[in-house]
Amino acid sequence: MTSDLRLHASEYRALALMYAAQGLPSGLAFYALGALIRQGGHGVEDVGLIGLAFLPWALKFLWAAPIDNACARWGHGRVVGMMQALIVLATLALIPFPPGPQLHAALAGVLLLNTLSATQDIATNAYAVTRLQGRAAGPANAIQVAAFITGMLMGGGGLLMVIGHIGWAAGMAGLAALLAVLYLPLMLDRRWLAAPAASAGSPVVSPAEAPATPARLRDLRRHADLGWALLLALVFKFSSTAVETLVQPWLVDRPLDLAQIGSLQTVRLIATALGGVVLGIPLVRRLGNRRAVLASGGLATLLLGTAWGLDAAGVSEMHWLALAFGIEAMAAGALYVAIWALFMNWASPERPGTDYTAMQCCESLANAVAAGAIGGLGARWDYGTAFAAAWGAGVVVLALMALAVARLQVTREAAS
């Protein structure tokens, strides 16, 4: 029993470290780059270019099956370690390319960085789904959300504050150092790679004993409810991503400086992680997968109008902005945990990384479209009109979510 508890603890710790490391490049792309582009003298329409950074997260399903098979053959530890080393090198390569004077080079570097991070995420997903389906899906996805958001917090708002004080080059060097430090515990303590708790009394499976049948992307079609799963993954975060993207130049034009924007992003991300833990886990355990998604989705949609309300009221005081965005973010965090607990229990154990990753790709594809579209709308319309349009789209999204959730086939429910 003691060895099982230690194994579970090492699994959760490994998940937290891996997802936090993957969140750092995402935070740079999605929560810092927009403000840096705008502050560097570029127009609001250029902020829409950060949608390119969503593409690796949207397209990683194309190489998910080979990564799944590599994990089965060589082990999750080797695959994650190789990707983490490449991520550190790619971060160092960004040092000479600040997004103000070197916008396109910076975008290319951030795109490469997120491609590597998205590839590592496939291996992390495979590890999580293989070991933590069933009732463990709720806590596992709360760890995923909290750790990934912690990484985004440091790579987004935290990095903005650092860059505001010491500049782009030093900020990128510090980011690379942090990425290296996060991997050290995984390298030094290998208990997270021991046999899963359910078969802890059995010998550890070696790479040579990997499954004979490789994972294949086309096997997704074995899910009879695949279309509904794809719809849910595509729509659930579309409107909130549009709002979050437009909020960055909106804050610059209030006007707030980078340190203040970074502080707000930090508050928002902490609140998202907190909402995932204190709201998301209880909702999943008490209501089950489907009802937890609908309950948290309804609350998140209601609060999606926060940015529109703040703009209409002309609010620019930091304490009111932090309070309003913090409350909105808690609901978003609860929804995120509920959604990914649902997809973890929906994924096939035969293709853990491929199934789960395909759903994440749909989310990222929708994020890329939303980020690109809202930049154009923000340039053509005023901020208030664009925020209102995104809020209205959120109501449509909620209706589509309700249709999809009712038709999903989840064999391993997360409720107690």
TrEMBL record:
Localization terms from the record: Membrane
UniProt membrane topology term: Multi-pass membrane protein
One GO cellular component, as annotated: membrane
Membrane-traversing stretches: 12-37, 49-67, 79-97, 103-128, 140-160, 166-186, 226-247, 267-285, 292-310, 322-343, 364-381, 387-406
Domain of life: Bacteria
Key words, A-Z: Membrane, Transmembrane, Transmembrane helix, Transport
Keyword Membrane: yes
Keyword presence, Protease: no
InterPro entries the record matches: AmpG_permease/AT-1, MFS_trans_sf
Identification of the protein by name: MFS transporter (Putative signal transducer)
Organism, as annotated: Azoarcus indigens
